Amino acid sequence: MRTYPIARQIYGDPLGSDGDFNAEFRIGFGKTGNALYVAIGVDDDSIVRAFPGSAIYDAQDGCEIYIGTGTQSSDTAPDQYAFWGDYRLHFVRGANVEMEGVQVEAKWTAGGYQFEWRIDISAGGNSDDLATMVGFDIALWDRDEDGTRSFVAWAPGRSGAEKAVICEFYG
After folding, report:
1. Given 3-state DSSP classes, what are the helix, strand and coil percentages for the chain, each rounded to the nearest 5?
2. Which of 13, 53, 150, 163 maximizes the CB count within 10 A of its CB?
3. Are 8 and 22 a contacting pair, CB within 8 Å?
4. Domain 4-170: assigned CATH number
5. Taking the model in full, what pTM does it have?
6. Cβ proximity of 42 and 25 under 8 Å
7. DSSP for 84-117?
8. Where do the structural domains in the chain lie, given as residue ranges?
């Protein structure tokens, strides 16, 4: 599978180097079950995991995925799936809804972490039919022990909600 770098710093404190933060992902689509599979690997020399019960997005290392379908209008914000600390959130048009059909796991090591996602596109308000196309973006929050933090994404743009429909692939 092709590997894509997550290297576009959108805002926040400048990243020090590839040793400070380096990330990539792979994506696959399973037509059976209309599921996206996303594997993200991050090398990070300063890992910050929030204490249990904390869901402050920029106070810890975290991951967000944005998905829009071909049936959504261009002015409709994509679904946002977020993993921050112990929290797994799903935002649809700005509202936090039940995260149905989504599995996400994180594996933390001394030098980085991995996120593994399985997102059922037909659950949680997305299209039942993926015969057209899916817009996709991924972004990571990097928080370092010295308090610096950065928002790094795959697709070009200013914010996750604006970027999701830019990068499209056919299912």
Report:
1. 5, 50, 45
2. 163
3. no
4. 2.60.40.1190
5. 0.81
6. no
7. ETTEEEEEETTEEE--TTEEEEEEEETTEEEEEE
8. 4-170
